[in-house]
Design goal:
alpha/beta, TIM Barrel, 7-stranded parallel β-sheet, 20 strands, binds zinc ion
Length: 472
């Protein structure tokens, strides 16, 4: 008699967003076929021996091989980016197909498929970035793409090459409402940033650390409130990405208190970094941690932790935006140490996201294991229409699993698998790391070695978002 399962993970301490229970996990053809005690034998057996097993992570905010203006180029493509994801326990990534002003959204999607095709080691879906909402985009391209499985898009209130004005924001939010898409919003006030940046430059304050001074909390608070107001006018749910601190959190609490459907995302940089990581003097090393919004301070980190624990935040993403530090295509464009306004924005984090939250959040006693799963896997899958295929451990779901190793070590960049020459979290003591990552029933990371199979990762068309607003 042939074995009942392709793979059985035995004696797992299974954690989902709602429960923890002990079970064997039986896998057939890349999907979870059975959960229970003493399952029949599998062709392959892995003994989890009471270790915590979570669903594979869903990183719903990461940038891979996104076209940039030369000489700047992202360090990670779909090969190295999904390799790093897998080794860090993430089995689904949702990067961005970005429209260029003057360009077509459909062309951006076609180009992005070419970049991903045959390269990904884990499954992937696409968000859209809408930077030029022409009548053609609003009436035809965007609704057509939503119907084809691109059910979420990001809009920017800042960055010259991406930002929309308030009228354009209302236009795209109306499309989201009519067609049931999820709108993600980067909330910072562009004009205020430009004005502050010019003042700093006029005073000769161009070192990386002044990046933080050019984007203070009020800039984010105002735009967060404005985004909420625009969504209220259209009567559509929105998701505010990369919330960095107290004042933006207060706007979201206010909105929820008024019955508005406002979802919120935060990222590791707002828990583990502060503005001091941009530099205490005018040295250039702080360019490593230049991202927007900038990291704040210890008090704001605590506010973010509180929001993760109490349900304010919906999803926890990396916002992985990979640029090499010591490179002319990275943080030193053209080989120069440049003024902060010209430093490519973003930091790597696709591989460290889960271990940081598990170590400091779960093992540090700040959030429950169930909440960890909800934030890092289940809710992102629901928000972007991939649940229950992704984001949970259930019969019929894809066999995407992380078996956790709880052990203490000091993180260094040479342990990581991205193509970036640094991690902002080097020197951080971690208390856990994925001991094994299983994607579609295949072991992709065994705790020591990565098992590549480019093209293993498949494109996932997304359905409608299934997140429900939290009760007030
Ligand atoms: Zn952003």
């Amino acid at each position: 008699m042939s074995p009942a399962f392709d793979l059985v993970v035995r004696r797992a301490r299974v954690a989902t967003a709602s429960d923890c229970f002990d079970a064997d996990i039986g896998i057939v053809a890349g999907r979870i076929a059975q959960l229970g005690a003493a399952l029949a034998p599998g062709l392959r057996e892995i003994d989890a021996a009471g270790r915590v097993v979570t669903p594979g992570g869903v990183d719903a905010h990461c940038h891979l091989d996104q076209p940039m203006a030369p000489p700047v180029r992202m360090a990670d493509d779909f090969d190295t980016g999904t390799r790093a994801a897998a080794c860090g326990g993430t089995t689904t990534v949702i990067p961005f197909a970005a429209q260029h002003k003057g360009g077509s959204l459909r062309d951006a999607v076609a180009d992005y498929h070419r970049r991903a095709e045959g390269k990904a080691h884990v499954d992937y879906a696409f968000h859209l970035i809408v930077s030029d909402p022409t009548p053609q985009v609003l009436a035809s391209e965007l609704p057509g793409l939503i119907a084809e499985g691109y059910t979420s898009f990001k809009v920017y209130m800042t960055y010259d090459d991406l930002k929309l004005d308030d009228g354009q924001m209302l236009d795209v939010l109306a499309v989201a409402r009519e067609h049931g898409a999820m709108a993600m919003i980067h909330a910072e006030n562009a004009d205020a940033i430009e004005w502050l940046t010019r003042r700093l430059e006029a005073a000769g304050r161009t070192a990386p650390r002044f990046h933080a001074a050019s984007r203070p909390m009020a800039v984010e608070r105002e735009a967060t409130h404005r985004a909420i107001s625009l969504a209220e006018l259209v009567d559509v749910p929105i998701l505010i990405v990369h919330v960095s601190g107290r004042e933006a959190v207060e706007q979201i609490r206010w909105a929820r208190g008024h019955g508005l459907s406002v979802f919120a995302e935060t990222c590791p940089q707002y828990l583990f970094l502060t503005a001091a990581d941009l530099g205490l003097d005018d040295g250039y090393q702080g360019a490593r941690c230049v991202c927007s919004p900038p990291p704040r301070d210890k008090a704001n980190q605590q506010v973010i932790w509180d929001g993760l624990a109490d349900g304010l935040f919906t999803v926890f993403s990396s916002d992985h935006a990979p640029f090499r530090y010591d490179a002319p295509e990275g943080k030193k464009p053209g080989g120069q140490e440049v003024a902060f306004r010209h430093i490519p924005n973003g930091i790597p984090g696709i591989e460290t996201r889960l271990a940081l939250l598990y170590s400091e959040g779960v093992l540090g006693g700040r959030i429950t294991l169930e909440r960890f799963v909800e934030l890092s896997s289940t809710n992102p899958a629901k928000a972007y229409g991939l649940h229950p295929r992704k984001g949970t451990i259930a019969i019929g779901s894809d066999a995407d699993l992380v078996i956790w190793d709880e052990r203490e070590f000091v993180l260094s960049n040479d342990q990581l698998h991205h193509a970036v020459d640094y991690t902002p979290y080097a020197g951080q003591t971690l208390r856990a790391w994925p001991g094994m990552t299983i994607a579609g029933g295949e072991v992709v990371w065994d705790g020591r070695d990565f098992h590549p199979r480019a093209g293993r990762g498949r494109f996932l068309p997304c359905g409608a978002p299934t997140l429900r607003p939290r009760p007030r």
